[in-house]
Known about the structure:
Two copies of one chain form a homodimer.
Chain A: H1 10-19, E1 28-30, E2 37-39, E3 46-55, H2 67-84, E4 88-99, H3 104-120, E5 125-133, E6 138-147, E7 163-167, H4 172-182, H5 191-201, H6 207-215, E8 221-224, H7 228-240, E9 243-247, H8 257-263, H9 268-273, E10 281-285, H10 290-299, E11 305-312, E12 316-320, E13 326-328
Helix pairs in contact in A: 2-3, 2-6, 4-5
Amino acid sequence: MSTSISSLGERALITRLHARLEVAPAHVRTGIGDDAAVLLPDRGMQTVVTTDSLVEHVHFRRDWTAADAIGHKALAVNLSDIAAMGATPRASLLSLILPSDFPLDDFDQIVDGYASLSKAAATPLVGGNIARSPGPLVVDVTVLGSVRPRRLLLRSGAREGDELFVTGSLGAAAAGLALLGESRDRTSLTPDELACIERQERPAPRLRIGRLVARVSAASAAMDLSDGIADAAAAMAAASNVGVVIQAAALPCHPGVAPVAARRGLEAPDYVLRSGEDYELAFAVPARRRSRFLAAARRAGQVPVTRIGHFERTLGAWIEDADGQRSPLPAGFDHF
Amino acid sequence: MSTSISSLGERALITRLHARLEVAPAHVRTGIGDDAAVLLPDRGMQTVVTTDSLVEHVHFRRDWTAADAIGHKALAVNLSDIAAMGATPRASLLSLILPSDFPLDDFDQIVDGYASLSKAAATPLVGGNIARSPGPLVVDVTVLGSVRPRRLLLRSGAREGDELFVTGSLGAAAAGLALLGESRDRTSLTPDELACIERQERPAPRLRIGRLVARVSAASAAMDLSDGIADAAAAMAAASNVGVVIQAAALPCHPGVAPVAARRGLEAPDYVLRSGEDYELAFAVPARRRSRFLAAARRAGQVPVTRIGHFERTLGAWIEDADGQRSPLPAGFDHF
């Protein structure tokens, strides 16, 4: 039987966690171990801050997902919010609420999954806390970032005529979750199906393109797709006081989506509109900035971007089929 | 039967929460409602950040404590960490993990308790998230603050010969919890006992004295008493590479403590050494700064401060009785 965390106190667990992290970079004046962390100022920058949590049985199941993926994803979903602001992450805090019989090996793996992305994204862990849970595992993360005042990307900047672009492909995370629910045996899955599970478990926040698009002012608004493209398009339109139309045929559906959707009697685009958690980014791009936007996407490591619709004067959020027939966008995915 | 939060989605709950808050001050460029919050820089300042959570059945019980006290305390314990750094809070984030049958009235009260302290401490709520819990209520809070680089109070600055001061009185929060466990009927309690329960439920973070002591450089180190004075004294000594001695007779035991301690066969000072959650502050004060320190305490609204011991060269953490006999400090209170 494996050791549980109950054999250690909070301080011993923090020491153990600390030992698994990289040494903090110079802008972290005081990291883990005091009443609060202290960061040196980033001259001329504004501070961006976001928090999000993963809750066992709501956002993940421990019997479906490796512990390191839980650590990775808890940080990734926050980095995605930072990316959507056009900001650069600087530091993170991790609050772990652990069942008392939680295996120490899983604790280590959560920390390792977190630490690995934290290193890759230059977002050092500078503080947090560990508490006991009488129920589910809860992983709550806060990320601080910085952004140059005039480079900030809000949801509310979209204008009539702007084009709606999305990064990467859609529906993979939802299809991955469905596949996890259908079978725990991964050996029989196709590469496309495995890629869907990978997207569900280890989404890659789009930090580079967010920052580059912001730096060259190539977009008027941006938002991440935590709750899906239908939600993001509608939220950007509402915040910007314009309408939005998505062309169903233009949606870049991940190749693993169609078979999963078909088993539910849906076309891939309909499935994609109801799915979330892809952690891609949506951008509103003024037509005159399109080539600048595409150049930024190339410079960000050849990130694929697709024009899927546009913003217009008439309020509302619509999906348009190949015949030009419009129907209201579905409500999208609700984590809650 | 009262309405539960399950009748609303996450977005409706956030809108409801938002409506119960004050309008955010000018340094909040973007508050609730975008992918992340954006704060204007505080020129010349360093950023201080801390996070802490309250977990039902671990840190509180809903049948013992009013919901508004839970909201208050979740913010207060974080503000106490900011105070211990000598910093000024600027913004906060609130992550609520709610059981699906959670009463909407209690949701409103948690927000109101939070909002009331948030207003009093000028710490606007700028973001957060709401998720479902399959088990306990979890309230996770992050507070950002700022501090002038040379004014920062760390745990590690104590020197041989420094005096150990503590604010207010000790043991009240633990006695309050004990009283809640003994009886739910508050009508039969004395004013001292009621004050203990108030300390347990609505601790008042020592923001003003923390900031003033830091501003006049009257202390070499500070820490808050979330885990009690024994823990704080030992942690400050260890971080500063010195020893510490506390005089048992000098401990400012709250008047409500003695009867509770007696029912457990303890003297008040012994009870106080094993108790936590008072959220007072401990300061290491160089002897030549004592009058400056006392003046700062007076200016901070006549905060009572008591010299309870000193730091010395020989490593270790000791409690000294009236005859000068030393024994090791007990381990203190462990939230975990």
